[in-house]
Amino acid sequence: MAREPRRLSNAVWLGVALLLTALWLLRTALHLEWLTPVLLGLLGVVAVLVALVLPAALIVNGVRMWRREGRSAGNLLSLGLGVGLVTLEALAFAPLGRWGSAVVAIAAVLAGYFGFLFFSLLVYSVVYSRLGRRGGFDAIIVLGCGLAGDRVPPLLAGRLERAIRLHDRETTPPLLVVSGGCGPGESVSEAEAMHAYLRERGVPDDRIRREDQARTTEENLRFSAALLPADARRVVAVTSNYHVFRTAVECRRLGLPFHATGSPTARYFLPSALLREFAALILHYRRTTIAACLIVAGAGLVLAIFA
Question: What is the pTM of this model?
């Protein structure tokens, strides 16, 4: 982490360290008789939270996202995951026979594997967000995230306000690059709308550059980097808090010496947003993901054959 905080494997090693620490504490507690009832109670609470509260909370959040944000695939992730967990738990008690039980067991192990990865990434994302430089920037890149017609919506306004605070904090004001093309249902480019927002908030026009072609996070970063002056060495990308670590990972993958910082997001929006970020990272490292799934499935089938 000291060498490269933007490395995805840092999150996995942190998760492994936390897991081993928890197992060590469990082993230590089992040798203290007075702690055994407390330990059993805590394990019971955790089991109830994971088995009952978590799926219910995901379903409730999914319904709320459906009503507020629409029925896109990304907005339904928390609902789909909640229903999937409930289904998996129900199947665990169903008489499915030898092979049916093996399939359910494999699915449960995979759910635990992905749950461990998600928890590791979530914790490390919080750690990473506390590590970054707080000032001394030569340039600030603001990533776009969609408009409401030609207006800046609250999510994007949060990013711009975060960029303005960073800009105003510096003795020598850094360059601001606003990045985002024109997507479906948008009458102007995201960069143009963001430029107008910054001008209304008093940012000088000569401190703003517009990048109006990008459609993805990779393009946001790559196209914006091309607009930076040669002497801009301390650069930060501003995005929403749920998107910070994936932005940092993307910067590293592109060979850009940028770090990322985030703005607050509405609480109801966070579960689906975090799940989208997790899915994007898993797909980016799809070879590792496929290999892990094949190993778990193969081991489960072998055990089923020889059990």
Answer: 0.87
